[in-house]
Amino acid sequence: MPDFDDLLTPREAAALLGVRTTTVARWARDGLIKPAVRTPGGHRRYRRGEVVALRDANVVERQGFERDAARLYDQGWPIRRVAQEFGVSYGLMRRILRKQTALRDRGGKAR
Protein backbone atom coordinates (compact mmCIF):
# COMPACT_ATOMS: atom_id res chain seq x y z
CA MET A 1 0.00 0.00 0.00
CA PRO A 2 1.46 3.39 -0.97
CA ASP A 3 2.19 6.09 1.59
CA PHE A 4 -0.72 8.49 1.21
CA ASP A 5 1.55 11.48 1.93
CA ASP A 6 3.28 10.74 -1.38
CA LEU A 7 0.06 10.52 -3.40
CA LEU A 8 -1.38 13.35 -5.46
CA THR A 9 -4.90 14.05 -6.64
CA PRO A 10 -5.34 14.56 -10.38
CA ARG A 11 -5.56 18.32 -9.74
CA GLU A 12 -2.29 18.33 -7.77
CA ALA A 13 -0.58 16.22 -10.44
CA ALA A 14 -1.84 18.57 -13.17
CA ALA A 15 -0.55 21.62 -11.29
CA LEU A 16 2.87 20.01 -10.85
CA LEU A 17 2.99 19.12 -14.55
CA GLY A 18 1.63 22.46 -15.78
CA VAL A 19 -1.25 20.81 -17.65
CA ARG A 20 -5.00 20.41 -17.24
CA THR A 21 -6.58 17.57 -15.28
CA THR A 22 -8.05 16.27 -18.54
CA THR A 23 -4.51 15.93 -19.89
CA VAL A 24 -3.49 13.92 -16.82
CA ALA A 25 -6.52 11.67 -17.37
CA ARG A 26 -5.61 11.23 -21.06
CA TRP A 27 -2.00 10.41 -20.18
CA ALA A 28 -3.29 7.84 -17.66
CA ARG A 29 -5.49 6.25 -20.36
CA ASP A 30 -2.50 6.21 -22.73
CA GLY A 31 -0.30 4.58 -20.07
CA LEU A 32 2.09 7.51 -19.76
CA ILE A 33 1.34 7.76 -16.05
CA LYS A 34 -0.33 5.11 -13.91
CA PRO A 35 -2.57 5.76 -10.92
CA ALA A 36 -1.02 4.29 -7.76
CA VAL A 37 -4.41 3.58 -6.20
CA ARG A 38 -8.06 4.33 -6.50
CA THR A 39 -9.93 5.62 -3.49
CA PRO A 40 -13.05 3.80 -2.30
CA GLY A 41 -14.97 6.40 -4.31
CA GLY A 42 -13.06 5.47 -7.48
CA HIS A 43 -10.84 8.55 -7.61
CA ARG A 44 -7.29 8.16 -8.90
CA ARG A 45 -4.19 9.04 -6.92
CA TYR A 46 -0.75 9.34 -8.49
CA ARG A 47 2.68 8.76 -6.96
CA ARG A 48 4.50 12.04 -6.45
CA GLY A 49 7.78 10.50 -7.63
CA GLU A 50 6.25 9.31 -10.89
CA VAL A 51 4.68 12.71 -11.54
CA VAL A 52 7.97 14.50 -10.83
CA ALA A 53 9.83 12.08 -13.12
CA LEU A 54 7.30 12.74 -15.87
CA ARG A 55 7.71 16.49 -15.41
CA ASP A 56 11.49 16.25 -15.37
CA ALA A 57 11.49 14.20 -18.56
CA ASN A 58 9.91 17.21 -20.30
CA VAL A 59 7.29 14.95 -21.83
CA VAL A 60 5.16 17.89 -22.85
CA GLU A 61 8.01 19.54 -24.73
CA ARG A 62 9.22 16.25 -26.21
CA GLN A 63 5.85 15.64 -27.82
CA GLY A 64 7.09 17.90 -30.59
CA PHE A 65 4.15 20.23 -30.72
CA GLU A 66 6.17 23.40 -30.25
CA ARG A 67 6.46 24.00 -34.00
CA ASP A 68 2.75 23.43 -34.53
CA ALA A 69 1.88 25.70 -31.60
CA ALA A 70 4.15 28.45 -32.94
CA ARG A 71 2.58 28.09 -36.38
CA LEU A 72 -0.94 28.56 -34.96
CA TYR A 73 0.23 31.51 -32.87
CA ASP A 74 1.89 33.09 -35.91
CA GLN A 75 -1.41 32.67 -37.78
CA GLY A 76 -3.01 34.97 -35.20
CA TRP A 77 -4.36 32.53 -32.63
CA PRO A 78 -4.26 33.91 -29.06
CA ILE A 79 -1.98 32.09 -26.62
CA ARG A 80 -4.95 30.92 -24.55
CA ARG A 81 -6.57 29.29 -27.59
CA VAL A 82 -3.31 27.60 -28.62
CA ALA A 83 -2.90 26.30 -25.05
CA GLN A 84 -6.44 24.89 -25.12
CA GLU A 85 -5.78 23.24 -28.47
CA PHE A 86 -2.83 21.32 -27.00
CA GLY A 87 -4.32 20.74 -23.54
CA VAL A 88 -1.67 22.63 -21.60
CA SER A 89 -1.77 25.58 -19.24
CA TYR A 90 -1.57 29.16 -20.48
CA GLY A 91 1.70 29.69 -18.59
CA LEU A 92 3.38 26.65 -20.10
CA MET A 93 2.27 27.59 -23.62
CA ARG A 94 3.54 31.13 -23.11
CA ARG A 95 6.96 29.76 -22.09
CA ILE A 96 7.03 27.42 -25.09
CA LEU A 97 6.02 30.17 -27.52
CA ARG A 98 8.53 32.60 -26.03
CA LYS A 99 11.27 30.15 -27.08
CA GLN A 100 9.76 29.62 -30.54
CA THR A 101 8.59 33.03 -31.73
CA ALA A 102 8.21 36.72 -30.88
CA LEU A 103 5.17 37.25 -28.67
CA ARG A 104 2.54 39.83 -29.61
CA ASP A 105 0.93 42.51 -27.48
CA ARG A 106 -2.86 42.75 -27.14
CA GLY A 107 -3.01 44.80 -30.31
CA GLY A 108 -1.40 41.98 -32.28
CA LYS A 109 1.97 43.68 -32.75
CA ALA A 110 5.22 41.83 -32.03
CA ARG A 111 6.84 42.86 -28.75
From TrEMBL:
Q: Which GO terms describe its molecular function?
A: DNA binding
Which PROSITE patterns does this UniProt record tie to the protein?
HTH_MERR_2 (PS50937)
Q: What is the recorded name of this protein?
A: HTH merR-type domain-containing protein
Matching CDD domains: HTH_MerR-trunc
Q: Which residues form the HTH merR-type domain?
A: 7-75
Q: Which InterPro entries match?
A: DNA-bd_dom_put_sf, HTH_17, HTH_58_Actinobacteria-type, MerR-type_HTH_dom, SinI_DNA-bd
Pfam families listed in its UniProt record: HTH_17, HTH_58
Q: Name one GO biological process term.
A: regulation of DNA-templated transcription
Q: Which SUPFAM superfamilies match?
A: Putative DNA-binding domain
Source organism: Actinoallomurus iriomotensis
